[in-house]
Amino acid sequence: MSILGRLRRRTIPIGRRGETIACRFLRKHSYRILERNTRIKRLGEVDVICQAPDGCTIVFVEVKTRRSAAVAPEVNVGARKKAKLRILAHAIARNRGWLDRPLRIDVIAVILPDTGRPTIRHHENTVTAC
Prior knowledge:
alpha+beta, Trna Endonuclease, Chain: A, domain 1, 5-stranded mixed β-sheet
């Protein structure tokens, strides 16, 4: 790996790198990225919002990134996080006028090993949206 590659690996936060990899993965699978890091005051943030390949469904994506597969990243999406994602998805859908469209909440787990390619797992409809 080049010096620039190593430097980049240290300076770009792991979460941001995971989100970028997840967006690339989604695009490759015909999703259209609509927004990234969408914040709602006092509620929180949704990592990625995209349109599913069906052209209608709005998908809210929580990205969990880790350096090691010792514990699956998606395990960290517990009941509290799911409840928060549900509230966020509904608030954003209401603000954007998407309540008449199908909504879905997915989780993408990204494992970034020190060497080799990242492992990506896409869990569709992990949380009942609204």
